[in-house]
Amino acid sequence: MKSFLELIEDQLVANRLPLAGVTIAATPYANTPVVVNLHWHAFVEVKLAPESTVVAHQPVPSSALQVNSLWERFQDLENEALEAAWELGAWDLARVEARPFARPAAAHQERIECMTAFGVSPHDIDGEPVVVSEVPDADDLLDVAARAGYVCWQFRPVWCGLWKDVAQDETLEKGGYRNPHCPVVGESYLPGRARTVVYQLGRAPAPEPGVVPNA
Hints:
Blueprint: H1 4-15, E1 19-26, E2 34-40, E3 43-47, E4 54-59, E5 62-67, H2 74-87, E6 92-98, H3 108-117, E7 124-125, E8 128-129, E9 131-134, H4 138-148, E10 150-155, E11 195-200
Parallel strand pairs: 5-9
Antiparallel strand pairs: 1-2, 1-10, 2-5, 3-4, 6-10, 6-11, 7-8
Helix pairs in contact: 1-2
């Protein structure tokens, strides 16, 4: 089974579009499917007829892919996400721990965020889905997340990404990637709480001698 990094790299080669961000979502139960979401930074032209002029531009839908890998320990998943973020040049990786949304007084937005994390398009844009989903077990994953919560890892790649022209990070190789392996190790996870853990991966370059950094 391919790693998250290999899956993302395959999609980059196939689509040849810059990435704005990556999210990886999982429920707290071992050996359940994981969903990788790729958010593209590109637009498609909208025409009323093939030979007519362009009347609008629509964002390219995100891609949601189901990964059916076997895993026993939560930290194994997290370390794989960290490795993908590290080698793709991300400045950091955020782990968002979400509570079950099927509880009294839960905000509707929590359900929307969970649907998005597991590749279910919560709405359309001009009749087109905002996610192209290849997640056959999406309904089951949503049902589990509704009752047990879920985790979503988020990062913004520099290599082949939107951020390559603005990255100021002395840990990056030329081109915006990093060599393996990630030196950061994941933390333990306790289901049922809501918090965000941010892992710092990049490092700002030291200021030039005689230059005072901005306050």
